Amino acid sequence: MDLVGGKWKAVILYHLKDTNKRYGELRKEMPGVTERTLSLQLKQLEEDGLISRQVFGKKPPVKVVYSLTEFGKSFSPVLHAIIGWGDQIAAQKGEFVNSL
């Protein structure tokens, strides 16, 4: 849980599961997260080897792209199980809770 615990790490991994994203794209898809929190969570996920950060260009504005590493992709079955569980709860309660 140290690697993926907390409110936002699994959400970030969810948004990177199918495609690489730039910081701004992640920010738009997660309006409830502050810039500082997103930045810190991305840094921690990178340090833990779950995501990679590629920087293109040398002068500002540089292009930064985040993607899952092979280690990060190995979390996908767990992520899919969590999504399935959440969908089951939503179906039982008859509502979707959109906290992302």
From TrEMBL:
Highest taxon listed in the record's lineage: Bacteria
Keywords (A to Z) from UniProt: DNA-binding, Transcription, Transcription regulation
UniProt cross-references to Pfam families, sorted A to Z: HxlR (PF01638)
Ribonucleoprotein in keyword set: no
Domain HTH hxlR-type positions: 1-94
CDD domains listed in its UniProt record: HTH_ARSR (cd00090)
InterPro entries: ArsR-like_HTH (IPR011991), HTH_HxlR (IPR002577), WH-like_DNA-bd_sf (IPR036388), WH_DNA-bd_sf (IPR036390)
Name assigned to this protein: Helix-turn-helix transcriptional regulator
Species classification: Bacteria, Pseudomonadati, Bacteroidota, Chitinophagia, Chitinophagales
